[in-house]
Hints:
With about 180 residues, the protein is α+β, with helices and mostly antiparallel strands. The protein has helices at about 50-70, 100-105, 110-125, 155-160, 170-180, and strands at about 5, 25-30, 35-45, 75-85, 90-95, 130-140, 150, 160-165.
Amino acid sequence: MSGTTLNTNEPDRPDRPGKPNRPVEGRMTAASQGGVTVFLIGMRINNFRALRSWWPVFIAMPKMIRELSKEKERGLLGLQPLLGGPRLLYLVQYWESKEKLLAYASDRDGEHRPAWAAFNRRVREGRGKVGFWHETYAVPAGSYESIYVNMPEFGLGKATGVVPVGRRGERAADRLAAGSAG
Length: 182
C-alpha cells in the first residue's frame, strides 16, 4: 500500500502539476455531489512472528486496489491508507454506491473472492495470528459535510476534488443543509 490517496477519477489539474501532497491554502470542502459509501477495512497483526498468517493478507489488498484503479466502472472513487500503530493497517475507501461495493465483493472473477476464501482458510488454521475488520457507511445524498484547513487534498476531498467552503456554506450546519436541499 502506498502512502497516497488513489483518485480513480481525478480531473485534469493544470493548476497542481506534480504537487499532489502540497497543502491547498484556505478552507476547502469536498466537491462530491450526491451519496457516497464509505468503507473502512483493516487488518491487525496479532503475532509478528506468524509471517505466513498475516503477510498474505497484507499483500492481497494492493492487488485489489490495482484492479479497482484499472476498472473505474466498479465504483471506487478513492482511498486513504492509514496506520493505526505498529499492528493495525487500514484503508478508508470511498465508493460511488453500496451496490457497487457489494458487487465487487461478490464478483467471482475479481481479486476479492479468492483473497477472502484464502483469508478464511488462514483464519481456521492460524488461531488468531491476524485480525481483520471492516465497516461500511452508506451515506444518503447530502447528509455529509467536510472541511480541510491548510491540508493536502485528503480523503473525500481528494477522491472527488475540493471547492472553496463559501460555495457550500461557512458552517458545518450550512453545508449539511445545502447538501440535503439538492
